[in-house]
Amino acid sequence: MFELIVAGFMFVAxxxxxxxxxxxFGGGMWDLLATGPRADAxxxxxxxxxxxxxxxxxxxxxxxxxxxxTGFPRAFAAMMTALNIPFTLMLIGxxxxxxxFTFRKYDVQSQDVQHRWSTLFGAAxxxxxxxxxxxxxxxxxxxxxxxxxxxxxxxxxxxxTPFALACGLFALALxxxxxxxxxxxxxxxxxxxxxxxxxxxxxxxxxxAPIAFVVFITSKEGAPAMYHGLTQWWAPLLIGTTLCFAIxxxxxxxxxxxxxARIAAMAEVTLxxxxxxxxxxxxxxxxxxxxxxxxxPEITLRLLTYALVAGAVVxxxxxxxLFRIFKGKEN
Amino acid sequence: MGMSLAFHIVFATLGIxxxxxxxxxxxxFLRSRRPVFxxxxxxxxxxxxxxxxxxxxxxxxLSFELGLLWPGFMEKAGAIIGMPFxxxxxxxxxxxxxxxxxxxxxxxxxxFVHWLCGVLxxxxxxxxxxxxxxxxxxxxxxAGFKIVxxxxxxxxxxxxxxxxxxxxxxxxxxxxxxxxTGFAVAAIHxxxxxxxxxxxxxxxxxxxxxxxxxxxxxxxMVSGDFSARSVAKLQPAKLAAMEAVYYTQTGAPLQIGGIPxxxxxxxxxxxxxxxxxxxxxxxxxxxxxxxLEQFPRNDWPNVRLVxxxxxxxxxxxxxxxxLSIAVGWFAWKQRGVPDGKWLLxxxxxxxxxxxxxxxxxxxxxxxxxxxxxxxxxxxxxEAVTPMSKIAIPFLVFTLLYVFLSVxxxxxxxxxxxxxxxxxxxxxxxxx
Lengths: 331, 431
Known about the structure:
The structure holds two protein chains of two kinds.
Chain A: H1 2-32, H2 39-50, H3 54-71, H4 73-82, H5 84-106, H6 111-141, E1 146-147, E2 150-151, H7 162-185, H8 191-222, H9 224-229, H10 235-254, H11 258-280, E3 283-285, E4 289-290, H12 298-327
Antiparallel strand pairs in A: 1-2, 3-4
Chain B: H1 2-32, H2 35-69, H3 71-104, H4 111-140, E1 146-148, E2 151-153, H5 157-161, H6 166-195, H7 200-234, H8 236-242, E3 249-250, E4 254-256, E5 259-261, E6 266-268, E7 271-273, H9 276-282, E8 288-289, H10 303-334, H11 341-350, H12 353-367, E9 372-374, E10 378-379, H13 380-383, H14 391-420, H15 424-427
Antiparallel strand pairs in B: 1-2, 3-8, 4-7, 5-6, 9-10
Helix pairs in contact in B: 1-2, 1-4, 1-6, 1-14, 2-3, 2-7, 2-14, 3-4, 4-6, 6-7, 6-11, 6-12, 7-8, 7-10, 8-10, 10-11, 10-12
């Protein structure tokens, strides 16, 4: 029972990472793609929206990892061995991005230098979530095999497939959409810039549908277990609900109801990740590593659950406070 | 991994020390309303922000690196020792949240709440050290599990967290963070004060930094003694290597420096103090000290490096301790922040010593544990990733950290250079 609770916490942390840090990545993408007469104003809006919260948002990833290696050490060892290369690439992206952002902020120099850092920041913001999508895709691909506790398929299995690459692309589009939607609703965004982001959100949000379709098609070959999951009885229900939220988000954007669009976009991301994990439940690394078989001993899981509950009691009020101060109504 | 940690330990140390300074300074401002303290806490908070941003990134890299480089270790150890890491995750989280509030909230929060956020940053930082060092100390004194037929059994995560080495390592590292940050920050402000003795900003900064450093260093000496005696009990091979003791003896002399030679099992050219080692490690001049000959040759750490690193750590600690006595004496004589030319010069020179001590101490504890990754349980080479070209990932991570360090040094330097700019307008209405 405790393995499910711990896995649940891990899943929740992953969702929080996606809806918060994911949007920060998206912000970096729009920073790189800032165009038109208001390009600098767009960059400013992005910077203002991200600056106070990106470090906190980023910690969700660390939390996912520590829960994973405490609660499911074998899964952690398997993932980190099989996906050594993509994860290392992802870390390089994270380092470059953090460094670029810090530099841009604390080293006020000529426009030229600033722009160069911005370019690096933007490029890393594309690269990192793409790799994350690829890695998540690889976990459900079923191409990574663990035999007798040892990795049997080498370091390139699973993540260089059309399916995994499509997952990476999907992550990119999703985060870009999320960021643009948030920026329309951010209290510090100016009016004319708000409309720029509204159009961007509408575009990227609409692009999600065809990419999702590609992911689904490639999964037949690339991730048969997941494809099978997505053709279960509950799947139409889930996909239908996700679609409703997607349409609600786009409609909200269209009608300038930005707060509504924000909520709907968050729900959309949550349901997409929910669908992904349901379709491969109870696998952590399809098909050899599962939540039940590869969990830590009961006592560890039980203590970890207590720690997570205690941590959540401290965390959520603090987080609520942070967002109320910076994302609440301007006072 | 070694390289990553060697860099991370510096980021982390400053990341703990600076928030403490910044919170103290803002507290002083709230009490005295003198703008100089407000300006100080703003300046220090910028340093803390840079370090935290880099620390957050470097922490992410480390948490992945555990698996990318040491999957064998994590597979066995994750369930036993993951607890403190999870708790650390939360401590890190609160630190990130309240630092965000602190940095961006100067105009959005009431002053007292703002200060409280700063205090919480400092407290979360200290908690992070406690949890992380707990995990590290477990590698030195593994507890909380049994091994039956090669399988890990009877796991007790709490027992693992509160392993016998935890208390002394935690105290020693936390104090080390205060000492190193205190003296490093003091050195910078002493440098600027040397140029302009009338600068109120640097004078107050020096005062706060020195107070933290000079309170911590005597405590650190006591904690060092306590640590050495614990190591003598828990990891006698490590102590023997630290002190370059090849043969078990009573009334052992203390050997400082010298060249330990594993072949002849002697230490040449060392400065020896008769019975010194027995006195220090057992508090009895005739006490017995276990030598390396008690352990199989392939269980020895690198004696030379461990011994030298140990002497370096103790040496820098002792030097700072002496300096703190001088500071105390002059502060008492002057009834204020001491600003004698030679004392300031000594403080500037001593700036890096705290970090030198930390790095050396880290070498002692990590290399002293070799060839084990989990002392007496798992050898380092059993834990490493099966990646065929093992050098590549190690090289990649080393480069990443070199890159991060260059950035931190560059940015901090620019921040400090800015402090040279006149702050006088701000301070004219000083008391």
